[in-house]
Amino acid sequence: MASYKDKKVITIGVVSELTGLSERKIRYYEERKLLAPERSKGGTRKYSFQDVERLVDIANKMEDGMQTFEIRKMEQRELKNKQLRERMLRGQINAAFNMRK
């Protein structure tokens, strides 16, 4: 079951109020592929609480002088590292219990 933080149920107006970011800036971050809200049947953007946290993090990094492409590259690197750690851990578990795929 998905966590409530992952459910995309928050509108852009509420996200704007929660983060202090303008709707325009939120859409800009989406254009720069820093987040991907879902769309309702009517085309309304829907965000999760995790997206809200991510937007705050992005805004803080931008305030510190980072560019959107740097943030995207850093997030891609972090994702690759996480996937590598998971594969290594799975391999260690399989080796410890003599399991095969």
TrEMBL record:
InterPro entries: DNA-bd_dom_put_sf, MerR-type_HTH_dom, MerR_fam. This is MerR family transcriptional regulator. SUPFAM superfamilies: Putative DNA-binding domain. Residues 9-77 form the HTH merR-type domain. Coiled coil: none annotated. It holds the Pfam family MerR_1. Keywords: DNA-binding, Repressor, Transcription, Transcription regulation. The keyword Transcription regulation applies.
